[in-house]
Structure formats: structure tokens, C-alpha cells
Design brief:
- The structure is a single chain.
- The chain has 14 helices and twelve strands.
- By secondary structure, the chain is an alpha+beta fold.
- It has two domains: 21-269, Alpha-Beta Complex (set domain protein methyltransferase, domain 1); 290-443, set domain protein methyltransferase, domain 2, CATH 3.90.1420.
- A three-stranded antiparallel beta sheet has the order 3-8-7, with no helix packed on it. The protein has a three-stranded antiparallel beta sheet with strand order 10-12-11. A two-stranded antiparallel ribbon has the order 1-2.
- A hairpin with a 3-residue loop joins β7 and β8.
- The longest helix has 51 residues, at 393-443.
- The protein is globular.
Length: 444
């Protein structure tokens, strides 16, 4: 099971007495492989919780604060040529099935985490064995805390998807390559690898020599960057990622004072994405969004096709229902606190009236129907519910807090959207009355 990679000479162990043993071993592994940690301190982050990376001396603007050699990057190219990669590809070929690069990478991580001979073992064992994202919550907790939200549906769909992918390969791998997968591969370990990948992977552009558009079955395959994936997130932190043939690292776009934490920036992510992928939420997150969809069912196929063509001509995201040729699925449309998507009202006009004319009756009907949809979504969401005694107190508190923050953010967006519709109806009525008065005055 050995994955041979060149390493440096053993150095004196860094002082990491306050860190978990697995993290200390990972730090030692980094130093063995010529990662310069002399100006970095890896310790508990009071601001974010968990582990953070801090600078020992002031880092000036554009300073390269963290960097690792390319040989430490865990990429799909390296996995495909590994013992695990070759075993999986051989089994998939025999079965006549396609295995995505992402699944291949996750299976490699599972085996590498369990084999001390694997080059990335000390990195993989430093990744927490338990994740706090909703995929790992008990089903009763998901229902109680996320019932009525979009995230509840996403969790259900992803769990089914992961189970299908696991069942398609795992039994065959266990039978054909027990020396690699026996006592290692399970659905729990597959879930662990999925969450490790989804919460820690980086864009493929950071792998030297990979095409920026490299995809696998339509999906971009990320890479794993030891040390760099420890960096905590702070929105709007100015950073730049830099990759070349030798290394990959991060430059800071603003000065970082000595002793302060170095932050990554995931970009503008709402709490739904943060909770789903990373297991945490931000209080009053300005990037919160709510995805809404609208189902339009007609009496006949001809009418449905006519509206489908009209919607497509306006670049509205729309598909025919798989189980009903007279039905259309429109969306998703992303709501924010700032405004309603322009295509949303247009979609309701077309679905309700079958044309684009923004007449008073057409627009009023569309706004009223939209208001009804938004209010139904608010009612379905309801209030955050208590967990009772399903979980230990510490974990219970975190889940309750994050679920409540997620729900509050979703409700704020929906309530703002309802207000936008209400204001739109009021303006429409006022304008209509003014138009009627003008018409009467012109008639006389």
C-alpha cells in the first residue's frame, strides 16, 4: 500500500504540545518535506475555534505568507497512477462503469488515512475524523433543525447520491482488493472522505501543469493542499493564490501584524453553503441567498411547449418535468436581501398569461402569485426547533446555534423579498390609477 514520494531529512520536532498529536505529526511531516514554518505559528484560533495559522512577524502587503512544494499537493493526476487509483480503475473497467475523479480521490484518501506507508498519511490523519456539517447529523436532527428549508432537501439528495456511488463500487473493491480496502472502506469512511474533500479542496488551477478548464465528466476536480487548508475563512480578506512548477502559496493583500492570524477568503458564501460544506454559519451574513423554483403545469403539451419556447427566448432556466410533458420546472432563482431577480417576475408573467406584455392585469397577477409562493416558503420553514436530548450538550449548542443562524438568514431574505413584492404592487396600483385619471382627462 506504499505510495513512495521523496521526502526531506528528519528535523527537530517543532513545539506543538498544545495541538492534537495528529496535527503535530502533520507539522513534522511538512518540515521534513522542506516547508518553511519558521515565521508561522499553528495553534488554537480564539476567533474561529479549532486550529489557525498565525504569523510570528509582521507580513507586509503582497508577502508570500504560506507556501508548500508541488510534490505535497494531492491531485487526481497522482491518484490515477497510485496503487489505489489503478485498483479502482481496473474494477470500474471490469464492471463497465465510469468512476469520477472525485470518487477516485476520496477512495485514495480513505486508504491513505489508514496506511502509515502512504506518503500523505500524516496529512490525512490530521484531518478531523468527525465533521459538523448536516450530512453527519442524525436524521432526526436534520428533520428537526432544517425541516422546511432548501438545505434539508440538499442533504437528503446528497446522502442518496453518496450511498449510490458507494454501493456501486465498494462491494467489488472489498472482494477484489482486500489487501487495500478490507477493514478500511465503509460508508462512514466514504462520508468522511466526501466531507474532507468538499470542505478542504482547492481549484485545480493550483496544480502546476493542469489545464484551467480540466474537468472530469463535466465536473471540475479539486486538489488537496496540506497546511493551506488549515487557514480559516474571513470574508473580504484580500489574498492572492500563486502557483508555479515548484510550489503553491498565498500572498496577503493587506498587512498582517505580528501574532495575528492569517486568513483565507472563500469568497461571498451564504450561510446555506457555509453550513452545508463547512459546518458553520456567520451571524447576519450579508451574502445569504434563498433559491426558489416555480412549477407550471398546463392542460396540454402544445401550451406547455409554447411557454417553454417563450421562457427559453428570455434565458429563463427551465426544464420539462420528467414525469409530465405538460409541466415545466422554472429556476432556480436566487433571492437576496437587496432585490428580486428580474427574471423571476418575467417568469411568472409568462407562466400565468402566456405572453411578455407587461399589462396591469398581467403584472398584478404575477406579483400576487409570487407573493403567495414566498409566503408559503416562509410558513414551511417555521421556527428553529429544539433538539431535546439527541446530542451531547456541546454539540447540541453548536448545531442549534448554526441552524438558528441559517434559518434567520433565510427568513430575512424571504421577508425582504415579500416586502419588495408588496412595494411593487403598491406602485403598480398607484401607477394604474394615475393612468386611468389621465385617460379620463384626455377623453374629456
Amino acid at each position: 500500500m506504499s505510495e513512495e514520494m521523496p521526502g526531506g531529512k528528519r528535523k527537530r520536532r517543532p513545539d506543538s504540545s498544545d495541538l492534537p498529536p495528529a496535527m503535530s505529526e502533520m507539522i513534522f511531516w511538512l518540515e521534513e518535506n522542506e516547508v518553511d514554518l519558521s515565521n508561522l505559528s499553528i495553534r488554537t484560533s480564539k476567533e474561529c475555534g479549532g486550529i489557525g495559522v498565525f504569523t510570528k512577524s509582521t507580513a507586509s502587503v503582497d508577502a508570500m505568507v504560506v507556501r508548500i512544494p508541488q510534490r505535497l499537493v494531492l491531485s487526481i493526476e497522482k491518484v490515477r497512477t497510485s496503487l489505489v487509483g489503478q485498483a479502482v480503475l481496473k474494477t470500474a473497467a471490469r464492471l463497465g462503469v465510469q468512476v469520477s475523479g472525485e470518487v477516485l480521490l476520496k477512495l485514495f484518501m480513505i486508504v491513505g488515512r489508514s496506511s502509515s506507508e502512504n506518503f500523505w498519511n500524516r496529512y490525512l490523519t490530521s484531518i478531523p475524523p468527525v465533521f459538523s456539517s448536516p450530512l453527519h447529523w442524525p436524521e432526526e436532527v436534520v428533520e428537526r433543525e432544517l425541516g422546511g428549508t432548501n438545505l434539508k432537501g440538499e442533504v437528503d439528495v446528497k446522502r442518496r447520491d453518496l450511498r449510490e456511488k458507494y454501493d456501486a463500487l465498494a462491494p467489488h473493491l472489498l472482494q477484489e482488493f482486500p489487501e487495500l480496502f478490507e477493514d478500511v472502506l465503509s460508508f462512514d469512511s466514504f462520508m468522511w472522505a466526501h466531507s474532507a474533500y468538499s470542505s478542504r479542496s482547492f481549484p485545480p488551477q493550483l496544480v502546476e501543469g493542469r489545464d484551467n478548464e480540466a474537468k472530469d465528466g463535466g465536473d471540475t476536480i479539486g486538489c488537496m493542499l496540506p497546511l493551506l487548508d488549515i487557514l480559516n475563512h474571513k470574508y473580504k480578506t484580500p489574498i492572492t493564490w500563486v502557483a508555479d512548477r515548484e510550489s503553491v502559496g498565498m500572498r496577503v493583500g493587506a498587512e498582517v501584524d505580528a501574532g495575528c492570524e492569517i486568513f483565507n477568503n472563500y469568497g461571498p458564501k451564504g450561510n446555506e453553503e457555509l453550513l452545508y460544506s463547512y459546518g458553520f454559519c456567520l451571524v447576519d451574513n450579508p451574502a445569504d441567498i434563498v433559491a426558489v423554483r416555480y412549477a407550471c403545469v398546463e392542460q396540454d403539451v402544445e401550451t406547455a411547449n409554447s411557454k417553454l419556447e417563450l421562457l427559453q427566448s428570455q434565458d429563463v432556466p427551465v426544464d420539462i418535468m420528467s414525469d409530465n410533458p405538460c409541466g415545466l420546472h422554472c429556476g432556480p432563482f436566487l433571492l437576496t436581501r437587496d432585490a428580486l431577480p428580474g427574471l423571476l417576475l418575467l417568469t411568472f408573467r409568462i407562466c400565468l398569461c402566456g405572453h411578455l406584455d407587461p399589462t396591469f392585469e398581467n403584472t398584478r397577477a404575477a406579483l400576487r402569485q409570487l407573493r403567495s409562493l414566498l409566503k408559503d416558503k416562509l410558513r414551511a420553514m417555521g421556527e428553529a426547533k429544539k433538539l431535546r436530548d439527541l446530542l451531547p450538550p456541546g454539540q447540541k449548542t453548536a448545531i442549534e446555534r448554526d441552524s438558528a443562524n441559517y434559518r434567520k438568514g433565510q427568513k430575512r431574505v424571504l421577508e425582504a423579498s415579500v416586502q419588495f413584492v408588496k412595494d411593487g404592487l403598491e406602485r403598480l396600483e398607484v401607477q394604474h390609477k394615475e393612468d386611468l385619471l389621465k385617460a379620463k382627462s384626455l377623453a374629456h
